């Protein structure tokens, strides 16, 4: 079964990363900070799901 929450987080991260790359934004910007927060949320979600679903 598809994990829609994980897909949403990954899509948001991909969009933010593309925006940052196009604009050449430095690490201190809110967009880059949101990417870091999204990475953490993805890692926590995958850990909570367990090893059977990677």
What does this structure look like?
The protein has helices at 4-23, 30-49. The chain has 54 residues and is mostly helical. The two termini are 12 Å apart. Residues 42-54 have a biased composition (Basic and acidic residues). Residues 29-54 are annotated as: Disordered.
Low-confidence stretches: none
The proportion of residues in beta strands is under 5%
Would you count the extended β strands for me? 0
Largest sheet, in brief, is: none
Overall, the morphology is elongated
Q: What is the helix/strand order?
A: HH
* Number of alpha- plus pi-helical segments: 2
Distance between the termini: 12 Å
Q: Given the helix and strand composition, which structural class is it?
A: mainly alpha
Helical content stands at over 70%
**If you compute it from the alpha carbons, what radius of gyration comes out, rounded to the nearest whole angstrom?**
13 Å
Mean pLDDT: 90
Chain-wise SSE layout:
Blueprint: H1 4-23, H2 30-49
Helix pairs in contact: 1-2
Biased composition (Basic and acidic residues): 42-54
Region (Disordered): 29-54
């Amino acid at each position: 079964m598809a994990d829609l929450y994980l897909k949403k987080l990954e899509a948001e991260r991909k969009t933010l990363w593309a925006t940052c790359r196009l604009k050449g934004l430095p690490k201190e910007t809110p967009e880059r900070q949101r990417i870091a927060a999204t990475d953490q949320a993805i890692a926590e979600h995958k850990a909570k799901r367990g090893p059977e679903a990677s």
